[in-house]
Specification:
- The protein is about 70% helix and about 0% strand.
- The chain has about 160 residues and is mostly helical.
- It folds into two domains: about 1-80; about 85-158, Arc Repressor Mutant, subunit A.
- Helix 4 packs across helix 7 and helix 6 (about 120-130) crosses helix 7.
């Protein structure tokens, strides 16, 4: 990969990778750090990564760095990775959807965000998350079922 292609990768993929990270971890500063680490890794491996596969490399690296960050922080601060919802008074569908996304297991959340928010194909998601296409489809199906169940419960209906 040339320097020009590397800069093109930053221009083309940094915004979508940042959105993906923020949706998953809800902390823009940490997302920026992870994204910076991701592009640093890409630069260090620029000789090994082909330009046409850079998008997949960026999202794969960002995802794995995010997972490592989550595991490290949960061990460091002894924080459970699941959160409980205490308030069900919503006035915005985005709040309900974000709360529903937080209830999903990490792999389902990442799958649904890559598919429905970022528009990746099943094959691309499989490459990013290191899953087979069938596993990706199953995760997305299960996530959509859980989202539907959560959103249409009487407590969350607007």
């Amino acid at each position: 990969m040339t320097e020009k292609e590397y800069n093109l990768c930053i221009d083309n993929y940094s915004d979508s990778a940042f959105r993906f990270l923020v949706k998953n971890i809800k902390d823009s500063d940490t997302a920026k750090d992870i994204l910076q680490d991701t592009f640093t890794k890409l630069w260090e491996k620029k000789e090994d990564v082909e330009f046409v596969k850079a998008k997949s490399y960026i999202f794969t690296s960002a995802y794995h760095t995010m997972i490592n960050n989550i595991k490290y922080n949960s061990l460091k601060f002894n924080i459970p990775q699941t959160q409980t919802i205490t308030s069900n008074s919503y006035n915005d569908i985005n709040e309900v959807l974000n709360e529903a996304l937080e209830q999903l297991p990490q792999i389902q959340k990442a799958s649904i965000l890559l598919r429905d928010y970022e528009g990746y194909s099943y094959n691309e998601i499989g490459d990013i998350l290191n899953l087979s296409q069938e596993q990706v489809k199953i995760n997305i199906f299960r996530a959509r079922v859980k989202l539907k169940e959560y959103i249409v419960t009487i407590d969350n209906v607007l």
